[in-house]
What we know:
Alpha-Beta Plaits; 12 strands; alpha+beta; Ribosomal Protein S5, domain 2; eight-stranded mixed β-sheet; about 280 residues; single chain
Amino acid sequence: MKAFCPGHVTGFFVIEDGSPVPEKKGSRGAGFCVELGALAEVSMIAGKTSVFFGDRETDAPVTKRALELLAPGWAFDVKIQHQAPMGQGFGMSAAGTFAACLAAAMELKILDPKYAALRATHIAEVENRTGLGDAVAQSVGGFVHRVEPGIPPHGEFEKLGIAGREVVFCILGQPIKTSAVLADGEMRMRIRESGDLCMRDFETAPGFDEFVNISWAFARDSGLASEKMNKVLGMLGSAGKGSMVMLGNTVFAFGDCDAIEKKFSGLGTVLRSRVSESGPRLV
């Protein structure tokens, strides 16, 4: 069984992981899903679950934990192809795990397979501190506003009526480890202060321009954006505007994508994608 899950890029967020119930943990914020995602091929086997990223077998604690939550007592052979780099804010950990869980749930004929895959992926991400809201947004696709943390029936989120469009990314350096940011007390406080203000501003006018502008305000004010990011985005001029990918050493930009790609050329690895209007699905 094969399944695909889109990637997800967060523009701004507030950490909400204080609940003892993992389904209630997560983040508030806003972001968009992208067609760069993860493809998973899953088959049931005897013995222990094995996970391959491409041709390389890996420990994959998030994926293995999610499959354990989804189908205790079952073992799977899992092959995942990530279409964007890990650790650069594209939600690849959640995408690969969500796709694998959806394929496994369909193989086992689990009732409401997409919700079962969402729940398993979200809990595994929270437990491993690799993400707090990607799976929630990926479950529906498009631009998503995460109103309350966690997954239904606890969490609340809405798909925004923002038209899909193309986006350009530039990867500027080494990956950022999400778990390290989530464990940094000072950084958590700055994210909280800036994120709360950004959420209030966005909820007043939840549109596309507001999303991009507020995302960049959050990246600057929280201290997450680097000087290099500031310089690179400042070079765009009338070609477009963007912000930092949370949490990655990457920037995104919307606008004249051909012109943006030329401006990003030579500064780092450049990727282009369209916003994905669809969530996870069988292929």
